[in-house]
Design the sequence.
């Protein structure tokens, strides 16, 4: 009985370090996604948020067309960094470009459900078995990427929507930071490599599979939390500014 061939990852075989800078690709799906976002924004009556949209499109092109895509085949830590940029930087930019309106269909979905759904998607795609499926074929790969991005955008749209209670928003930010920290801790303290795809691809980059996995955990644990922490701090600062302005106006009226 012949051994089952390992499917080629979507971003191609793991490149040697000396060939990494030349590992660019022409990802039609990523380009089509950027085009669809641009056209959708152009057709909207309210065309605010152009700068966040442009920034998000540039980042999407970097994530999927640059050598970073190929590097994710070699290093699990690069894959995690790729996902973190997608859900914690690209997603809020798209949420600013396409804000949630008062009459949006998603407005009926409680914030807690959006947080739970996004959390479940993040954890499921980083489970070793589903991860192996998600990086192999084009359909599974984009199912992973779009579900991560889509669920993150829906959550960020609600978090950045005007009128959201500060307590609810802060709890959602905290819950997201905690769940990412827990996933990061599991990866950091695992005593064996969990992802078969990277068993033979990390050594050319000076990392053992366990060290690469630990680095991925640290990325998920610390840097991934920073955008949510920054957003929470900005929310609190804006509320204090409004309170101070209201207090000042009340004193001036006396």
Sequence:
């Amino acid at each position: 009985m012949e051994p089952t061939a390992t499917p080629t990852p979507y971003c191609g075989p793991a490149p040697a370090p000396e060939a990494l800078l030349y590992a660019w690709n022409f990802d039609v799906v990523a380009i089509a996604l950027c085009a669809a976002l641009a056209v959708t924004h152009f057709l909207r009556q309210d065309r605010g948020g152009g700068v966040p949209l442009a920034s998000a499109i540039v980042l999407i092109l970097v994530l999927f067309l640059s050598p970073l895509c190929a590097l994710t085949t070699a290093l699990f830590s690069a894959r995690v960094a790729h996902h973190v940029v997608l859900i914690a930087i690209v997603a809020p930019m798209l949420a600013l470009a396409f804000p949630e309106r008062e009459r949006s269909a998603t407005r009926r979905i409680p914030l807690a459900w959006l947080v739970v759904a996004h959390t479940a998607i993040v954890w499921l795609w980083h489970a070793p078995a589903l991860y192996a499926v998600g990086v192999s074929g084009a359909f599974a790969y984009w199912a992973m990427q779009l579900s991560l991005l889509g669920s993150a955008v829906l959550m960020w749209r609600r978090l950045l929507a005007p009128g959201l209670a500060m307590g609810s928003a802060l709890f959602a930010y905290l819950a997201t930071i905690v769940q990412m920290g827990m996933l990061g801790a599991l990866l950091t303290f695992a005593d064996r490599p969990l992802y078969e795809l990277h068993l033979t691809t990390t050594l050319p980059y000076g990392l053992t599979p366990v060290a690469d996995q630990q680095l991925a955990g640290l990325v998920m644990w610390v840097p991934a939390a920073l955008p949510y922490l920054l957003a929470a701090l900005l929310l609190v600062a804006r509320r204090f500014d409004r309170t101070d302005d209201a207090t000042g106006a009340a004193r001036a009226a006396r």
Q: What stands out?
A: The two ends are 89 Å apart (CA to CA). Residues 189 and 207 are 16 Å apart (CA to CA).
